[in-house]
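User:
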Amino acid sequence: MIKIKDIERKAQEILLQLKINKAPVPIEEVVVSLGLVIDKGIFGDTISGFLLTKENVNLIAVKSTESEVRQRFTIAHELGHFLFHSTNKDDIFISNVLFRNESSSTGEIRMEREANSFAAAILMPAKFINDEIQNLNNKLTVEEAIKDLADVFKVSEVAMTYRLTNLGYNI
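Assistant: Predicted structure:
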């Protein structure tokens, strides 16, 4: 099991190495700079994307018909699988939007949660969120603030809400 602090640290290391210091994080550039290829295509209804590692090819495929924010999260999620779960063998990780309905006690669910945590950490770094919150109009409602932050970070409002909650913000 990978600790959240280790996931957060890995995301911070990558952003520091690539000199990324503000939102939105250019996730496609991050992935390419780490030696992976991104391909966009059309998949079945239940697949948002997948990671394929075979020989010397590391490919993240993402569903082209999904929204930009969903594609960004899927790409970051698959990068999490690459960094934390991929071995040197031939691997494939498929992000299935229905996966959340299955039993959370399986190892696969743990890996999905870890990949989601990494996606949140790299797309919405705590420091970047803190900086952006300082710039918010203090007259905004919580819902308006979440929407504004989601727009700045190019993530969904749901993803931003989860991230803020996990960082300890009282929403």
